[in-house]
Amino acid sequence: MNRIKTILLLIILLLLVFPSFQKRFGLIKSKPLSGVFTSVSKPVITSASWFNGTWQDQYRQYREDATGFKPDFVRIFNQVDFSLFSIPHAERVIVGKRKELFASGYIRGYLGQDFPGKYYIEEKVRMLKFVQNYLWDFKKIFVVVVIPPDKGSFYPELIPDRFLKMKRHQTGRDYFTQKANDAGINVLDFNPYFSAMKDSAPYRLIPSSGVHWSDYGSFLAADSAIRYFEKKTGFVTNQSHL
Hints:
The protein is mainly alpha-helical and 242 residues long. It has helices spanning 2-25, 47-52, 54-65, 70-85, 104-111, 118-139, 151-154, 161-164, 172-183, 190-196, 215-233, and strands at residues 93-95, 101-103, 145-147, 187-189. It is 55% helix and 5% strand. Helix 6 (118-139) crosses helix 9. 10% of the residues are buried.
């Protein structure tokens, strides 16, 4: 029995010190984390930073970043939280039904909670109309507003019920599109295009683990945009390099 306890103690001690050996010697190749984050460099100690406590806090963050296998530990921790408790660790991301990921901004947009006001949109449309006409008439520069699909409008049935219980208001996208079309502004809105292919597309247009269009969806959008430009301008592009 004592031998088993000793072996277990040695295993625990090895697990505690092995990350330090990994950081020092790089015994096992560990894939770095992807995404945007700020790494903390080793702080320089001064009398002021020591007494006001900033050095201690920065050094603690530096040691946490310097831990061996940190990328692997972060991935395991995030995956456990998501798989068992539906907790995402991406900023402003909400888990919907069937574990569909949504950006909180798209849900707010679908509900019309970010509507900036009719006057604001009408002024933007007026200025945009002037810029579009001026650049085309004097510079032959074609201006078009491209509206990508938003996941909130594309998969409203998968938005969590706690949001669907809220009252839905007029959306800024719908009001802008209406006023822009009335003013004769070039608008390429991919929301109705993607919605029409929602059930017939061979691949996902917006991935379940993403909040924007998939690679397949972006290629379809690029092809449609090129055809739209050609129709509007009369200039035929060479797509052989795409």
